[in-house]
Amino acid sequence: MTAFRFLSALAALAVLAQAPAAAAHDNDCTVPMADWQPREAVQALVEKQGLTVRRIKIDDGCYEVDALDTAGARVRMRLDPGSLVILRRGGDDDDHHRRRGDDDDEGGFFHHGD
């Protein structure tokens, strides 16, 4: 392989290696803390949907909610802290970490690469 082809391949690999990191940042919320809705508003929104809140936490600048539906199934939501728009919603079967046997507190509710 010539030096030019080697360097071209190396440059392409470097660009591809950055893609997961860029995708992970797309999951971050960037709302200034002064513009956040209070946790009580998050809880009210979730309960209005017929869910029981188990935990509300903050990850990557977003609210993450762990809740139960009326059948007792786990529901997880990621919300924009300013608008409370639901950015992602899933259940146990969507949880990459739980399938691997990891604890929720170790990796958050959602795997950023999903």
N-to-C terminal Cα separation, in Å?
Answer: 36 Å
Radius of gyration: 19 Å
Estimate the strand proportion.
15-25%
Counting H and I runs of at least 4 residues, what is the number of helices?
A: 4
Portion of residues within helices: 25-40%
Q: What's the overall average pLDDT, rounded?
A: 75
What letter string, H or E per element, gives the SSE order? HHEEEEHH
Strand order of the largest sheet: 1-2-3-4
Uncertain residue segments? 10-25, 95-108
The counted number of beta strands is 4
Structural class: alpha+beta
Principal-axis shape equals: flat
Largest sheet: 4 strands, antiparallel
What key attributes describe this structure?
114 residues, alpha+beta, four-stranded antiparallel sheet
Describe the structure.
Helices cover 38% and strands 24% of the residues. Strand 3 and strand 4 form a beta hairpin. With 114 residues, the chain is α+β, with helices and mostly antiparallel strands. Strands 1-2-3-4 form a four-stranded antiparallel beta sheet, with helices on one face.
Summarize, please.
The protein is an alpha+beta fold and about 110 residues long. The protein is built from 4 helices and 4 strands. Strands 1-2-3-4 form a 4-stranded antiparallel β-sheet, with helices on one face.
Write the SSE topology:
Layout: H1 3-26, H2 39-48, E1 52-59, E2 62-68, E3 74-79, E4 86-91, H3 96-100, H4 104-107
Antiparallel strand pairs: 1-2, 2-3, 3-4
